[in-house]
Amino acid sequence: WSDLSAGLPQRYINDIAPDPANPSRALAAVGGFGTAHLWAWTGSAWEARGAGLPNVPANAVVMLSGTEVLVGNDVGIFHSRDGGGNFAPYMRGLPLGVVVTDLKVNPHTGTVTAGTYGRGVWQAPFPSGHQRPVGAPQ
Questions:
Q1: What sections of 1-125 are H helices per DSSP?
Q2: Distance CA 112, CA 131 (A)
Q3: Please, what is the end-to-end C-alpha distance for the chain in angstroms?
Q4: Position 123 pLDDT exceeds 80
Q5: If pLDDT is split at 50, 70 and 90, which confidence band does 129 have?
Q6: What pLDDT is stored for residue 128 in this prediction?
Q7: Exposed / middle / buried, residue 38 (Cβ in 10 Å: 0-12, 13-18, 19+)
Q8: Tens digit of pLDDT for each residue in 87-118?
Q9: Among the residues of 21-91, which ranges form H helices?
Q10: What DSSP designation does 87 have?
Q11: Would the pLDDT of 135 be above 60?
Q12: CB contact at 8 A, 10 and 34
């Protein structure tokens, strides 16, 4: 094991997602308040990402590709089309303010499933225009 923590804020690291298109890159979902909630490992350092994410703990992150990213946090799900740089809400019928604690991708059905804190389990198709994660079986 090698400690890669240098450069991350002193917060809980709630989830890590590898980049399916670049084995040197990963994203980390960070808890707490008052700091960036998504950090990208570039192969040698962490860089803050996540413009458009609200200032609430990020609980889950998945990378559908090198550019398509979903983050589940304490107020819902957010989608990025630029590798985690900028985000917009991706609620698709989720209740307003739902705490998303986990996200899982099913490449065979083209769906993302969200586990929530006390509000059940929800499922939606991949964001429009995206068929299946990189490297997924056809």
A1: none
A2: 12
A3: 34
A4: yes
A5: low
A6: 63
A7: buried
A8: 999 998 999 899 999 999 998 899 999 999 99
A9: none
A10: -
A11: no
A12: no
Instruction: For residue 126, give the DSSP letter.
Output: P
Per the document, the length of the chain is 138
Which tokens go with 28?
């980390």
CB 46 within 8 A of CB 35: no
Q: Name the nearest CA neighbour of 113 among 102, 128, 123, 99.
A: 123
Non-local CB neighbours of 44 within 8 Å, separated by 6+ positions: none
Strand ranges in the chain using DSSP code E only, listed in sequence order: 13-18, 26-30, 38-41, 46-49, 58-63, 69-73, 76-80, 88-89, 100-106, 111-116, 121-125
**Cα dihedral 73, 52, 94, 134 sign:** negative
Predicted confidence (pLDDT) per residue in 39-87, tens digit: 999 999 999 999 999 999 999 999 999 999 999 999 999 999 999 999 9
Bridge partner list, 72? 60, 77
Does residue 37 register a pLDDT over 70? Answer: yes
Strand pairing class (88-89; 38-41): unpaired
Q: Are 99 and 119 spatial neighbours (Cβ–Cβ below 8 Å)?
A: yes
Residue 131 has pLDDT above 80, yes or no: no
